Amino acid sequence: MKxxxxxxxxDTGNTEEIALKIRSKISKEQVYLIDMYDAKVEDFAEYDQxxxxxxxxxxxxxxxxxxxFFDQFKKIxxxxxxxALFGLGDQFVYCDYFIDGVGIIGEVVLKNGxxxxxxxxxxxxxxTESKAELDKGTFLxxxxxxxxxxxxxxxxxxxxxxxxxxxxxIEL
Length: 172
Ligand SMILES: Cc1cc2nc3c(=O)[nH]c(=O)nc-3n(C[C@H](O)[C@H](O)[C@H](O)COP(=O)(O)O)c2cc1C
Description:
The chain is of the alpha/beta class. It has a single domain, classed as Flavodoxin domain (Rossmann fold, 3-Layer(aba) Sandwich), CATH 3.40.50.360. The chain is 32% helix and 23% strand. The protein has helices at 14-26, 41-45, 64-73, 100-111, 153-167, and strands at 4-9, 31-35, 49-57, 61-62, 82-88, 115-117, 120-121, 138-139, 142-144. A hairpin with a 3-residue loop joins β3 and β4 (61-62). The radius of gyration is 14 Å and the shape is globular. The chain starts with a strand and ends in a 5-residue tail after the last helix. The site of flavin mononucleotide (FMN) has 23 residues, from α1 and β3.
């Protein structure tokens, strides 16, 4: 059983709630939750399989703890690591910046040698622009909109977790 590091940052608790849901669908013993408020660069070296979660704030800015950590994050070597991303946002009010944080963080992972799994179709979302949509029609990670589509969250999380279990792969 390989341990998985789930690093998340959350301003009002929504991303934290999704992190807990994801952990409960894999295994509490296998998934270690690390709040970015407490994270250190060395923590990332502990895991070859990593899940990163964050919300986006203030027209495309990283969630505050991710923002504080970002200069250090850019120095992390992700070679040999497999990374899945999930992001929270509001596709209507912030339609030009929907889950931009996933794109900002994901680009660093790719630049620093990581492999990204858990890409997610943009079907069913009504945003205009997103830095997370590197390839047209595909987000770099799971997109969750608790502000407008909370009724779809459980199904999205369940489907995404099944997807990453195969793509990592996660050995239970
Ligand atoms: C002032 C403000 C700015 C926001 N800016 C963005 C944004 O630029 N892009 C986006 O997708 N969502 C944006 N949101 C929506 C939040 O990301 C969303 O509510 C999210 O669920 C918050 O998650 P958290 O509680 O884990 O921080 C914003 C929300 C507020 C209140």
